[in-house]
Design brief:
The protein has about 200 residues and is α/β, with parallel strands linked by helices. It has one domain: Spore Coat Polysaccharide Biosynthesis Protein SpsA, Chain A (Alpha-Beta Complex). Helices cover about 30% and strands about 20% of the residues. The strands form two sheets. Strands 1, 4, 5, 6, 7, 8, 9 and 10 form an eight-stranded mixed beta sheet that branches. The longest helix is centred in the N-terminal third of the chain and has 11 residues. About 40% of the residues are buried.
């Protein structure tokens, strides 16, 4: 697949990396993967797909360990001071940095194996009025692209199940994008899952 590096005029990305990695035992954002960190891998692939701006949301402890370049070139890093409130609070912190009217790709830092081509296809298929979800072998995965019309609900709506609530509230807007990319469903949340990921090469 030939990648188009022109920046999508209205697609931004948030990388949610503010969890406390209690099961992993160390920050997932800083784990090594293919010569980089999880966070660098994801932000690099977003940049290659022409997606900008990119905002990484971190907890205070991870931010305190970051040095210049750790997040990737051109990435805005922000702290969620309320990380203990869960993922939705991190999404909302990231949305504070996103330009009005932009579609938003929500990326999870514990999904580092998403392939560059998948980011590119999501970018190409993103459009207002839809919620775009990659699907591998019948399973929905990440990242998910929310059209600009749904950002207000993500910011301030009643979302008892986080971003998933928005999908449930608007089933007619959900567009599934089949992919041959197991990375969209590989949730690297434990030392065992991390070992399995490294064994895949």
């Amino acid at each position: 697949m030939v990648m188009n590096n022109a920046v999508h005029p209205s697609l931004a990305a948030i990388v949610v990396a503010a969890g406390f990695s209690s099961r992993m035992g160390e920050p997932k954002a800083l784990l090594a993967y293919r010569g980089a960190t999880f966070l660098q891998t994801i932000t690099g692939r977003l940049a290659h797909a022409g997606i900008a701006p990119v905002v990484a949301v971190l907890n205070p402890a991870v931010m305190g360990r970051m040095v210049a370049g750790d997040a990737g070139a051109g990435v805005t890093c922000v702290v969620n001071e309320r990380s203990e409130d869960g993922m939705l609070s991190s999404i909302r912190r990231g949305l504070e940095e996103i330009p009005p009217g932009a579609d938003v790709m929500l990326c999870l830092v514990d999904h580092p194996a998403v392939q560059p081509e998948t980011y590119g296809r999501l970018r190409e298929m993103a459009q207002h009025g839809t919620i775009l979800v990659p699907v591998y072998n019948g399973r929905r995965g990440h990242p998910v692209v929310f059209g600009a019309e749904f950002i207000g609900e993500l910011r301030t709506g009643e979302c008892p199940r986080g971003a998933r609530s928005v999908l449930q509230n608007h089933p007619g807007a959900v567009v599934e994008m089949p992919v041959e990319d197991e990375g969209v469903i590989l949730d690297v949340d434990t030392p065992e899952a991390y070992a399995a990921l490294k064994n895949k090469g």
